[in-house]
Design a protein that fits this description.
The chain is α/β, with parallel strands linked by helices. The protein is built from 16 helices and 24 strands. The structure holds calcium ion (2 copies).
Amino acid sequence: MIRPRRGASHTGPISSRGWFNLEEGLPLPLMNASHGVSGSGAGRSRNVAPPNDRRQNGGRSGFVSVIAGLGLGLFLVALPVSAADPVKAELTGRVKSIAELKQVDPNHPGVVKVDSGLTNAAKWYQDSVFYHIWLDGFADSDGDGHGDLRGVLNHLDYLNDGKADSKTSLGVTALWLSPFFDANSTHRYDAKSYYKVDPRLGDMSLLKTVVQQAHQRGMKILFDVVPNHSSSAHPFFLNSRSATNALLRDFYVWSESPPQGGSREWTRTETGFYYAHFGRGMPDLNYLNPLVVEEMQNVMRFYFNLGFDGTRLDAVRYLIEEGKQTTDTQGTHRILKELRKTAGEYTGDRYLVGEAWASNDLMKEYYGNGDELTACFNFSFPGSVANSIERGDGDAIDSNISYFCQNLPRGFVPANFLVNHDNAGSRSMTRYNKDMRKIRLATALNLLEWGIPYVYYGEEIGMEGQNGRDTNMRRPLLWKDAEDQGKDPESLLSWHRNMIRARLGSAALRHGEYRRLEVGDHQVYAFLRTTPEQKVLCLFNLNTTDAKALRLNLAAEFSREVYPIVGKKGEGMPAAYQLSMVPGEVRVLSLDVEAKKVCDTPEH
Ligand SMILES: [Ca+2]
Ligand SMILES: [Ca+2]
């Protein structure tokens, strides 16, 4: 999820002072700083100070982080300290148990207990190829112009029909469904209930069928949730804003004082100001309230019990604000560790993949010591791939992969992708200006590299989409194109299918270690993927206009001949370690005499 740009509000008017006035939709008058945080109700709500409070308090008070054990586990509270403005640290705490939330959200199931009968293989995700389904765009079954769950069900065979060596399905082994919660938007990151499926998509029973049918075909499946916020139309929020002493007041982040000088993150209501990092329609939940954490764990158990194998967590950097720091706080990391524990309650792995859209250095912190997220999306991957392809030099992609090889906890890998529903980059067809050699290279790099590969829907058929507008990245999948390309062995769809089969057919390509190999020509990027039993060499001619003749000194790495998994038409094993590569060619060679050739290098 991308934070909206200042002044580019998609939710409503913004005042000249920069913050929202929910009641009138008009700029608010400047309020006197003396109205500050003092007052009877100030301590009831939570303690992210509007920016002006921090400035106004300045030297006389300031903010400190205080660890307050409230008998409910570790609990970080940032509270203003000032003799002039005594503020209580305790929460209102009117709701004592999440069982009581049924009173507020009629869809709430009460306390969800772990289904201990559910099992999963350990680290299954490291052997998977994921397909990212944007529900609104993937498949529309009823002709209303919007994708739906019946559409997903009808096209599961396209993704994986469950048959080994299928020549008709893509062969992915895991799905990520974009959010399906009842919501007002089409992205559905603004949940109105965590326990109701958006009626435009279907219902809970249909969702369960999708999960079962995916499993039957050998595919794992993830749900997608943004823990940071709900919709402002969620009954939790409606209750929270109804009064300063409302039942769920402390489920959200409130302040009685307005932000001086402006902050678009704060919105005024009749009962106070609430904090909404992603726009006023999506108020931040208060993760300093242990019941909010418990509730998100309850949501996770609910969907794990339904059969989901993991979850994709949106915008994980924003859970807890500490003073001026609104992202990547220690409090946020602590909450994610709590959510990971919930995944750990199940036998075998439930996978948590997070959107920590930040520098590599910040992102890697979300793995903790292997006790936080199981994986994070590699947001510098698409640019590194493009950089290498455009320059004809493997350094950028090697540097990206090597960074994570060296900096992630042992046994953990990043989640690689070329494009997603946000503005992480244009679709490959657009980014590489329809140059099929470059698009095939990018596809192969994504599907053969160290890491967990994700394919965004429509990429396999070369749909276009210009970075910069969400709608460009979320168009309906062109099913006629998919049908046509499915029959053509030289199509981009077939190339995807082949690269997926190559990866899944080799343990070394699935989860082997990575090592770059110098092959004497810098325009040919080469790496080895190895397990103790297997060794596979991947070669990419990043020069998309010139052929390359290589004399590989493989004797140090391979004691015998190598066998092609992806190679030249009619060719068995490369003779005398001499290879010629056509422009943009990809070759995959295995030491394993049993290696099956998956495909020939396509004719360009
Ligand atoms: Ca529909
Ligand atoms: Ca937050």
